[in-house]
UniProtKB/TrEMBL annotation:
The active site is at E244. This is aldehyde dehydrogenase (NAD(+)). Keywords: Oxidoreductase. Its EC number is 1.2.1.3. Residues 21-468 form the Aldehyde dehydrogenase domain. CDD domains: ALDH_CddD_SSP0762 (cd07138). It holds the Pfam family Aldedh. It catalyses: an aldehyde + NAD(+) + H2O = a carboxylate + NADH + 2 H(+). InterPro entries: Ald_DH/histidinol_DH (IPR016161), Ald_DH_C (IPR016163), Ald_DH_CS_CYS (IPR016160), Ald_DH_CS_GLU (IPR029510), Ald_DH_N (IPR016162), Aldehyde_DH_dom (IPR015590). Coiled coil: none annotated. GO terms for molecular function: aldehyde dehydrogenase (NAD+) activity. Belongs to the aldehyde dehydrogenase family. It is an enzyme of class 1 (oxidoreductase).
């Protein structure tokens, strides 16, 4: 059985001071695949000290030097892409196509950092003053289990580009993927202490990070509940905070949309990453006049979203990440039934022939009202709620009637009109007739979906402090 390395401090992997350990279970079949001994508060304090010691020198590196480090990390990840794909499938349950796409994106994220640095003005003139932008300091980066390599890359690339040093706390639920990325960073030859990793219990490691005045920046991706706790704790030492949190994204199909395109795209938006995506379009708003046609198309399109072991075929969906996720989705499907929603596709239980592992039946509910729990709470699995509307403004109002505001989708035959409607949505991104990702454009949310933005120049600025010089 594989032993996962949990501590990388001051330029080397080391035996953790922590003694708590756990077994990593593959969602493909429920079998043990690895063991990890968790880092503890002592390991975390060592990581913070290493990052603080490395900060004075690294913060003074040139744009050219930092770009070279980013390029080296990119190159090392590409060398390990097959290892990463395998780990993402076995440890997380991603479909093979998704696993490869996500890990290639992780590599290219470091090249995006170089593009930002090429033209970014770290010194600007404002009226009679000179304004300089300098690294915020030691950055603690918390990354989620549903996008391990990509989330690490997004935060690490921005922090390194800004000149910060790093304490990385990846999710303890996908440690094998995090270990591979850390091995790539190690192979890239950065100075010791610039990037450090401690992997273990969130409660244990977070306590040391939040208490330390040497950590001046928190960047967290995860649940809204945990994000709010971190934000409150950050005030004690005035840490700067970026939070990328939950979502309950609305997908609005307008009356003039091409339903043959819009409906399959809506299912893809809802079921992406096995439904475990904060950006999932889990609320589908449909004109009442088109509802019956959309229902028929949903049933037909759902047949293409096959479920199975990614090692054995080109399935669109694999299992959920762990037993807790499986049980959570089963509970929500039952909630939908209890609330009186109409089960159109899927339902409770395992798909036929997949009794081992954490596979679920991709599920579509119709007859949903926007006040039902399945329409308001982030389910984080392949469950779509279909809600009908009579007028466009009603759809906009229901879309905005949510505590979240991370992503939205609009399908329309009139893109110019869709853009005008998009301006009324209280959300960080709106995708119009597409599921494209723009890695250089800001990403983040309104309301309980977070604070701040990631990606591109605006994402870089989350790791910078502003200083004004007047003479």
């Amino acid at each position: 059985m594989k032993t996962v390395k949990s501590v990388y401090v001051n330029g080397k992997f080391s035996t953790p001071h922590g003694t708590a350990s756990t077994t990593v279970i593959s969602p493909l079949n429920g079998q043990a695949i690895a063991e990890i001994t968790y880092a503890d508060q002592v390991d975390t304090m060592h990581a913070i000290r290493a990052a603080a010691d490395a900060l004075p020198a690294y913060s003074k590196t040139t744009v050219e030097q930092r770009s070279a480090y980013l390029k080296a990390i990119h190159d090392e990840i590409l060398k390990r892409i097959d290892d990463l794909v395998n780990a993402t499938i076995v440890e997380y349950g991603a479909a093979r196509e998704r696993a490869r796409w996500a890990n290639v994106i992780a590599a290219t994220t470091f090249l995006d950092g170089i593009k930002v640095l090429e033209n970014y003005p770290f010194t600007i003139r404002v009226n009679e003053s000179t304004v300089i932008k300098e690294p915020v300091g030691v950055a603690a980066l918390f990354t989620p289990w549903n996008a391990t390599a990509g989330a690490i890359a997004l935060k690490v690339a921005a922090a390194l580009a800004a000149g910060c040093t790093i304490v990385l706390k990846p999710s303890e639920f996908c440690p094998w993927q995090a270990e591979i990325i850390m091995e790539c960073i190690d192979a890239a030859g950065l100075p010791a202490g610039v990037v450090n990793m401690v992997n273990g219990s969130g409660e244990v490691i977070t306590e040391a990070i939040m208490a330390s005045p040497e950590v001046t920046k928190i960047s967290f991706t995860g649940s809204t509940i945990v994000g709010k706790i971190l934000a409150k704790r950050a005030v004690d030492t005035m840490k700067r905070v970026t939070l990328e949190l939950g979502g309950k994204s609305a997908n609005i199909i307008l009356a003039d949309a091409d339903l043959q395109t819009a409906v399959p795209m809506a299912l893809q938006a809802a079921f992406m990453n096995n439904g475990q995506a904060c950006i999932a379009g889990s609320r589908l708003f449909v004109p009442a006049s088109k509802l019956e046609e959309v229902k028929q198309l949903l049933v037909t399109a759902a047949e293409n979203f096959t479920v199975g072991d990614p090692r054995e075929g080109d399935y669109k969906l694999g299992p959920l990440a762990n037993k807790r996720q499986f049980e959570r989705i089963q509970q929500y499907i039952q909630i939908g039934l209890d609330e009186g929603a109409e089960l159109l596709v899927g339902g409770p239980g395992h798909p036929e022939g997949l009794s081992e592992g954490y596979y679920v039946r991709p599920t579509v509910f119709t007859g949903v009202s926007n006040d039902m729990r399945i329409a308001r709470e982030e389910i984080f699995g392949p469950v779509l709620s279909v809600i009908s509307y009579n007028a466009e403004q009603e759809a906009i109002e229901m879309a905005n009637d949510s505590e979240y505001g991370l992503m939205a989708y609009i399908s329309s035959g009139d893109p110019a009109h869709a853009k005008e409607l998009a301006k009324e949505l209280k959300t960080g991104r709106v995708l119009i007739n597409t599921l494209k990702h723009d890695s250089m454009a800001p990403f983040g949310g309104y309301k309980s979906s977070g604070i701040g933005r990631e990606n591109g120049g605006i994402g870089l600025e989350e790791f910078l402090e502003i200083k004004t010089l007047i003479s």
